[in-house]
Design a protein that fits this description.
Blueprint: H1 2-44, E1 50-55, H2 60-64, E2 71-75, E3 78-79, H3 86-95, E4 101-107, E5 110-116, E6 129-133
Antiparallel strand pairs: 1-2, 1-6, 2-3, 2-4, 4-5
Length: 136
């Protein structure tokens, strides 16, 4: 009876060791996959061409959710491929007064879509934010 018990306990112990070894391998594989996915996601982020360096409280830009340090990837029809200077953005803003513009920004490593409607307000300009071109 004592020998049967010892043999059975040995089998249980080996099975537990195998179970934990498999779990450890699975966890390591999951971590490697998560890291690879994060790397590919970081590479697939679109390239920004401008940055918001000031947002006036109460302005159309602030109401739409635009924040300081947002990097602009797309501003209406302007993107990294057709952007030459800030005049491109000014033109889009003037032609879109009172109509919502789709603005895509990078914020904290994530792509964020903002609906921005340029319009007259108490302050200067139609947006109430300052945008600077990014030197690449």
């Amino acid at each position: 009876l004592q020998n049967d018990h010892k043999a059975l306990m040995k089998q249980v112990e080996e099975a537990l060791h195998q179970l934990h070894a498999r779990e450890k391998e699975k966890q390591a594989k999951d971590e490697a996959e998560a890291l690879a996915e994060a790397m590919s996601q970081a590479q697939s982020l679109p390239q920004a061409f401008a940055k918001v360096n000031a947002v006036t409280p109460g302005s159309p830009a602030s109401i739409s959710g635009l924040q300081v340090d947002d990097e602009i990837v797309e501003f209406g029809s302007v993107n990294v491929n057709n952007f030459q200077n800030l005049q491109n953005i000014a033109t889009v803003v003037q032609h879109s007064e009172g109509r919502p513009l789709s603005v895509t920004v990078l914020r904290g490593g994530k792509k964020v879509h903002v609906g921005l409607t340029p319009k007259r307000w108490a302050g200067k300009g139609l947006l109430g934010c300052n945008i600077i071109p990014l030197q690449r």
